[in-house]
User: Fold these one by one.
Assistant:
Number 1:
Amino acid sequence: HGLTTQLPAALDRNEFFIEYQPLVHLGDGSVHGAEALVRWLHPQHGVLTPDRFIPLAEHTGLIVPLGRWVLEQSVRQAREWQERHGGEAAAVPLRINVNLSPCQLTHPGLVSDTVDILERAGLEPASLCLEVTESALIGADDDLLKPLRRLSEMGVDIALDDFGTGYSNLANLRRLPVSILKLDRSFTQGMQQFPADPVDLKIVEGIVSLAHSLDLAVTVEGVETGAQAEQLRILGCDTAQGWYYARPGPPDRLHDLALVDA
Ligand code: G
Ligand code: G
Ligand code: MN
Ligand code: NA
């Protein structure tokens, strides 16, 4: 594959960049933080989204240095937002969510790299959330969970991404070092009409109630309309992300959004 062989040079030449999509509190719409989403500005093909190259990077192992680069950029960006907002003086510092591939989980440098990156940027661990897909943790043994547990003990939040699309048994949640469920976009799609499909409502209601009883916060993805936001808010979801609030964009846009409701 052409793109696969071009990946290492692309990292050297700085062809990757990060867009940030805001996460908001469903209660009042205020900005909570942002998710970092990597893109590749390819010299011939233009902007490529992660579905085009993350699987290739995972296959070749380049995801480890690429993921470290994404983490470092995003953590520095979060620190910069916080400083422009008054740093630790801000009531609630803006947070940053970064996606982790399964290969990064098994890489022995994960914990030390993360600690290093946070320290060098001067960002509190509690301002970082690492997103791991539900499928990456299905059947995870203790060796796989150990680094996540260490990060969680340091104060880093771990979110279970695309929740509801895997086959994980809900009782299994208790043994995962996870503090946030990111409800998959497919559930949000079921809230498109008002009132929403009663079965979808029951399912989301059940997930939210289980999550809260286990002290997990619930983030919803793919919110595209006000009706979806309102129904998910009534169901007790905590934070949301989607085109209704903002598409992924450059870092300064998040700063502007956060200032508007500050
Ligand atoms: O909006 P977008 O097409 O960027 O996101 C597609 C998917 O790519 C997301 O679901 C996300 O999980 C994944 N993704 C985006 N950025 C990264 C990244 O830096 N690392 C990894 N591993 N996955 C990412
Ligand atoms: O990590 P994850 O796969 O959840 O990344 C989020 C993905 O969802 C990205 O590809 C992002 O561009 C996309 N996305 C974000 N908001 C919306 C939305 O409101 N609707 C849809 N259809 N996709 C969205
Ligand atoms: Mn994600
Ligand atoms: Na997701």
Note: Residues 64 and 104 are 6 Å apart (CA to CA).
Number 2:
Amino acid sequence: PDNSLDDRIQAAKRKVGAECIILGHHYQRDEVIKFADFRGDSYRLAKAASESKGRYIIFCGVHFMAESADVLGRDGQVVILPDLNAGCSMADMAEITQVETAWEHFIRAGITDDKGTGVTPITYVNSTAAIKAFVGERGGLVCTSSNASGAYAWATARNEKVFFLPDQHLGRNTGYAKGIPLNEMVVWDPYMLNGGLTNDQLKRAKVILWKGHCSVHQRFLPEHIERMRADYPGIQIVAHPECRWEVCQKADATGSTDFIIKFVKAAPKGAAIAIGTEMHLVHRLATENPDKTVLSLDDNGCLCTTMYRISPQHLCWALENLVDGNIVNQIKVKPKVKHWAKVALDRMLEVR
Ligand code: CIZ
Ligand code: SF4
């Protein structure tokens, strides 16, 4: 291993000083997250970005998170994503033009209008800034996995119907927890004519889910839980709500990455816990809690390959460039998109 890299990162960080804050998502590798001034789930990181005083934010996470930081940051603040290839396969499952097509169809079907009377759109934070803006302009809001329940309450106070993007699992799990039966939720498939739904189905539905998912979390299956319970009697299962409904139903608890961390910390000495989320967080929790048995729900461990793209080399490169006065990989949301995306994100920060 190249141990000089750590020294270079530390030296560059010292040189840029308080002007630069490094944010790290829980799914980052240990070699990267150890340099973060602040770690969190996407809600806490968005909040940290909105409150940050420094001129530069280096975002060790994925593209949509850096976009949100740019939208929420002060004027003149610069957001840097160390590797531009760090995207999110779930966010890529909803394109703004597809969302516009869906909404135009909703208008034709008579369930809403241009302003969102009739349907409140909610987008999970794992989506492009353009979609956040679309939602904000139609009276909707952004949610994260830690405030999805509050976002549903906010949305249904406005309209009975919710359009949830782009994660069908988070949308279904949250709607169900709010008392909406599965048969009152339909799935809009952007690759099918009219989303694959009849007007009657659209009219009767309380929730219209976008057909998107996280390829990492969707790999956890109910069979994994059954096997864990057989192998480790008394084991506690905690799953991220991006997991399938069948998995979340069988788990003992579900919640965001911040929730999962608290869950493991609060468990008594000697407890066994299996976790359905990205493997870097699971491994870190296992190391930090040697008095407990912390396992991945799937023995193979599920890796988010795009989070993994942020390497110490990329972080070093971004920092050393800053020392030289160069800004690399700046993430800049267009001013027109920024306005309504901020409306939707501000609503997210107000809802708990
Ligand atoms: O991208 C994810 O899976 C996120 C945002 C997880 C979390 O709970 O922070
Ligand atoms: Fe996207 Fe899934 Fe990776 Fe989160 S874990 S960044 S939802 S691909």
Note: The chain has a mean pLDDT of 96.
